[in-house]
Amino acid sequence: MNIRLNAVYAVIMLFLISPLCNNTSAQVDTCKVGIYFNSLTDFNISDQSFSTDFWIWFNYKNDSLHFNDALEITNSKSSSFSNYARMKKDGINWDMMKFTAVVLEEWDVSAFPFDKQKLSLHIDHTIYDTKKLTFVTDNAGSSIDSNLSLSNWKIDSLALYVSNQTYNTTFGDPVLKGSSTYPSVTADIYLARENSWSTLFKMLTGVYVAFSIVLLAFFVKPSDRLGLCVGGLFAAVGNKYIIESMIPSTVSNTLFDNIHNITFIAIFVILVVAVTSFRWNETGKPEYLAKAKKLDRTSFYSVLLVYVLLNIVLIYRAAN
To answer: Residue 26: which of 18, 37, 14, 34 has the closest Cα?
Structure first.
């Protein structure tokens, strides 16, 4: 009887102890990560990229961990690190290095020049997966150089957070099956464009002058209107090509695309009115002459009012 009870106790103890043993063997090391940005340069909207220099550091207790040659900026076109240093203070390891990188970034220019951008940097540890290592962020120590000045941009904020990356491969790791997850940290820098209003009117001067020229067609003889309409149309098209050479085209319409489109529509409407008015004046009949005069007056105020209102709505939506 005692033998059976001892056997039962042994089995129970085995079940109680086993989870503790498993938890001990599967213990995950925790590492605090911080980033300090020295520079943000070469904002290339056409090439969808920007350049940056930054320091990154790691605080951890396990002496067997290492970060030299073990980090990758996964969304970079090119990157390199230097000034690697490792020291230990108060029982905590402190690794530090400097990175230089050209980072891929999908610029959203749909609201240009009122656009706000989020520059993202994704950094993975390429050796230890999340079963061995996990990151926590040093938000208090992470920042952007206060002396960093960007032309036409204002830095709003920096957000640092853990974003572990899962891949649908084990990269040949014989222990893992199917997929693998590696510790990753993401730094998001939020920017807002400055001098937006002056940029807007500077780039739209051409299209507004073109529209004004076409609008003057209502004050000249019907036989002379076609020349003004065609000249204004070519001026608007030329302005559109100039702007597109400065801002890369996107799948969605930008603010400038919408303004040019309503300008083309307005010019077409004025052209239709000009042709109609010309045909009525050619008849020489008093009733048609009166109708042509009334059409010109009504069309002038209607086209101008609708055009101005649409521009206000489009610009207001982009600015807010």
So the answer is: 18
